[in-house]
Every structure is written in structure tokens, then in C-alpha cells.
Write a structure and sequence with these properties.
Number of strands: 0
Strand content: under 5%
Structural class: mainly alpha
Shape: globular
Radius of gyration: 21 Å
Number of helices: 10
Number of domains: 2
Length: 296
């Protein structure tokens, strides 16, 4: 029961933070404050009552329309809230189970708490970046750079907690090694996108991948390690290719090859989806791949 209650509380907190994220996603691109004015309809300016601002439930009660002018409230609002709530519940489930283990040491509890909070921050960032890139083709520095820094701190802290049984001298060396390894992973992941960007420019003589995608890959490597970032990259490219094929399937796209070649796709959105999958199931995916290739 305690595990269910704890996970449910995390889900409710995720819904609330998802609701706040929707405010950010609507106001950041317009350069507006996320603090004032109060939540309102962007069509008629109607200020929302408290019961119109309850995450997910209000959208369902209002049937996706403003009570003042009847304007549609897009699907993005409930989907973002539901995504953050579900992902935060997924982060809390292992930790709440760990709390019920009598044999769990204090260090193990701290490590589990760090993993839960780190996962919540990462998934909130990835949902935010996925929507911003899908809607605005924008991966803002205000999210990517702090995300990289937080991921670096998280990776070093998680490594330190996982090695608390080592002697103090070895622990210091291990922490330094984790910091260096994280910095190398961040640089390598970002450099991978920069290399692809450079090769594309050599071939096409115009930019095909933005610098924001390089920072996003660095963010993924900071949180997930280089192998986890590669899983996210592979999944992102695969999803992007599927969407591109779907667009190409329409006759209007086939008729104008030049227009098709200039069609923009939000690579960052696909990378974020890949990052979420990698964060949840990256290790089993890597293990299965190594077994399939005979490398493990």
C-alpha cells in the first residue's frame, strides 16, 4: 500500500509540474513571464478559475474548450501533463519499493532517492524540449545548458554513491574518474552531431542539423552516459526516418522533390523520445543488443 501511495503522490506531483510546464511552453516562445499574469485563455483572455486549472481533469471537464469563448484547448495540454505524471510515477515506483526492503542500507536509499529525483528532472526537461522543438523548432539554451550541468553533477553523485563501500583513497580516485568519463561522454555525444552537421554542410552546402541538437545530445550523454545517448540517437533517427517516409508517402510531397528536400523535421523531438526510452529501458536494450551480436 505504501508503494502505491508513494507512486500515486509522485504521479500527482508530475501532473502539477506538467501543468506548469504547459505554461512555460506557451509563454517562453512569446517572451512572456511564466509567473504573471494568471493562467488565462490565449484566445479571449478569460482568466481561469481554480477548477479550470486542475491538471488533466479540467481539460476533460471542459471537453477541450475554453468556457469563455469556446476556443479549442489543444491536445498538447493534457498529453504533456499525462506524460510528466506517468514518467514521474515510473521514477518513483522502484524507489518506493526499495524503501520497503528491510535490508536496504542508508547509502542504497540515498542512491535510490538520487536516481528518482534525477529521472524526474531529466524527463521534465526532455518533455519540454520535445514539445518546443516540435512546435517551434527551438531547443533553448535556458534548458540545454543547465540540463548538461545538472546531468554532470548527477552522474558524478550517482557514481560516488554506488561506490561508498570502497576505501576513502579509492573513492576519491573513482569520483575523479567518473567526472572525467562524464565530460568525455558529453564532448563525444555533442561532437557526433557536430560531425554529422559538418558532413551534411559539405555535401549540401546548407545547414541540416541545428546546434541545439548537439547540445541536446550532450545533455543526454550527461544523464545517460555515452552508450545511453547512442541508444537515444539510434531510436531518434529511426523515428525520424519513419516520419519522413510517412510524409513522402503523400502524393503532394512526391510531386515536388525540391519542396520535399527542404521539409524540416524536429530531430530534437525524436532524440527526446529516444532519450526517454533509453532512460527507462536503455540498459536492457544494450544488454539484448550485446547478446544478439555475441559481444557479451
Amino acid at each position: 500500500m505504501l508503494r502505491i501511495l508513494g507512486t500515486g503522490f509522485a504521479a500527482l506531483a508530475g501532473l502539477a509540474f506538467g501543468s506548469f510546464l504547459n505554461v512555460c511552453l506557451s509563454r517562453w516562445p512569446a517572451g512572456e513571464s511564466v509567473v504573471a499574469p494568471r493562467s488565462h485563455c490565449r484566445s479571449c483572455g478569460h482568466t481561469l478559475a481554480w477548477w479550470e486549472n486542475v491538471p488533466l481533469a479540467s481539460w476533460l471537464a471542459l471537453r477541450g474548450r475554453c468556457r469563455g469563448c469556446g476556443a479549442r484547448i489543444g491536445w498538447r495540454y493534457p498529453l504533456v501533463e499525462l506524460a510528466v505524471g506517468t514518467l514521474w510515477a515510473a521514477c518513483a515506483w522502484p524507489f518506493t519499493g526499495q524503501l520497503l526492503q528491510p535490508s536496504a542500507s542508508a547509502v542504497e536509499v540515498y542512491a535510490g532517492l538520487t536516481a528518482m529525483l534525477g529521472g524526474m528532472i531529466l524527463y521534465w526537461l526532455l518533455v519540454a524540449l520535445a514539445v518546443l522543438d516540435a512546435e517551434q523548432f527551438w531547443l533553448p539554451d535556458r534548458l540545454t545548458w543547465p540540463g548538461i550541468a545538472l546531468g554532470f553533477v548527477y552522474s558524478v553523485l550517482a557514481s560516488w554513491l554506488s561506490r561508498q563501500s570502497l576505501p576513502s583513497s579509492s573513492l576519491h580516485a573513482t569520483s575523479a574518474h567518473a567526472a572525467v568519463a562524464s565530460l568525455v561522454a558529453i564532448a563525444a555525444a555533442g561532437g557526433l552531431i557536430l560531425f554529422i552537421r559538418w558532413v551534411y554542410w559539405l555535401i549540401r552546402r546548407h545547414e541540416g542539423i541545428g546546434l541545439g541538437d548537439a547540445k541536446l545530445m550532450a545533455l543526454l550523454a550527461a544523464w545517460l552516459g555515452f552508450s545511453g545517448a547512442l541508444v537515444a540517437f539510434g531510436l531518434g533517427v529511426f523515428l525520424g526516418a519513419l516520419v519522413a517516409l510517412g510524409i513522402l508517402a503523400f502524393s503532394s510531397a512526391r510531386k515536388d522533390a525540391k519542396e520535399w528536400a527542404l521539409t524540416k523535421l524536429p530531430l530534437g523531438t525524436f532524440l527526446c523520445v529516444g532519450g526517454i526510452v533509453s532512460g527507462l529501458w536503455g540498459k536492457p536494450i544494450i544488454a539484448a543488443y550485446l547478446r544478439w551480436t555475441g559481444l557479451h
